[in-house]
Specification:
two-stranded antiparallel ribbon; 4 helices; Arc Repressor Mutant, subunit A; 79 residues; mainly alpha; 48% helix; globular; single chain; 2 strands
């Protein structure tokens, strides 16, 4: 299931300078995430972008989760 969702996210140096995008559309993952963070409802996004599908939004969230999952923060000790 995760692989199917993540396959909706693509990068192409010719589209939005290689930013992760949804299914080859000129809709970036960060654009979707920022919209959701700003309180825009999924239904409103789907209405504003008719080519967008609900699975695309889920894919953006999963993509972001995978990036954060890999992030590690290590304390730096100064002597």
């Amino acid at each position: 299931m995760e692989d199917t969702l993540l396959s909706r996210i693509e990068t192409n140096p010719q589209v939005l300078t290689g930013k992760p995008i949804v299914r080859g559309l000129r809709i970036s993952v960060d654009q979707i995430l920022k919209s959701l963070a700003a309180g825009i409802e999924t239904e409103e996004l789907l209405s504003e972008y008719p080519e967008l599908e609900s699975e695309d939004i889920k894919a953006c969230l999963l993509y972001a989760a995978k990036l954060v999952e890999e992030e590690r923060v290590y304390p730096i000790r100064v002597s």
